[in-house]
Amino acid sequence: MNKKNKSELKKEDELEKNNSDNVDSKKENLKKNSVVTNDPDTNKDKRSALEENLQEDREQNNLQEENLRKEIEQLRDEKLRLLADMENLRKRSDRDRADSIRYGSINFARDILSPSDNLSRALEVISKDAKKTEPITNLINGLRMVQKEFTLILEKHGIKKIKALNQKFDHNFHQAMMEIESKEVEEGHVVQEIQSGYTMHDRLLRPSMVGVAKKPSKDEKKK
Length: 223
Prior knowledge:
Strand content: 5-15%
CATH topology of the domain at 104-222: Nucleotide Exchange Factor Grpe, Chain A, domain 2
Strand order of the largest sheet: 1-4-5
Shape: elongated
Largest sheet: 3 strands, antiparallel
Order of helices and strands: HHHHEEEEEEH
Helix content: 55-70%
Number of helices: 5
Mean pLDDT: 80
Low-confidence stretches: 34-38
Structural class: alpha+beta
CATH class of the domain at 104-222: Mainly Beta
CATH architecture of the domain at 104-222: Roll
Radius of gyration: 54 Å
Number of strands: 6
């Protein structure tokens, strides 16, 4: 056998020896691991650590669920408040629009009452006993028809005359211009209407200017 073959055999022997050592080392490690794995105390510690980790995970999940639940409840409350605000805004807008339609011409209605007052005063000063020619009588009747039609037009648009005479004085609808001593009318009642008042729907257009009854003074009673 030559030197080259001897060298190769030597290398092969060393390689086999190394492989054998590696196998023995691996077997020893496996044996140690087997011993550790089969150790009850070690397994118990591992189970305890695993249970602690699971408990921590459960607590963290519960905390996250609680935070999400609170956030959902908060968003729900905010949504309900927003819906309520929108509903109130809609109702207010509808009410403002309705008021604009109903009372938009209130200033015009207040101004147009002046011609009606003048017409009423003109008819009141006409004497019923005075002799009148036929043209004058026709004119008076025509003015009365105009006054009646004017009243109907006002009522059509929600403008109504306030009843004042013989009514108890109401500061919401009446404006006292004077006090009049009276035995026939109860104190605090209207005995004279100086200017008629009107309402437009449920709002006061202008108050009635009235004279209010009061008890006669003591000097008047003695007489």
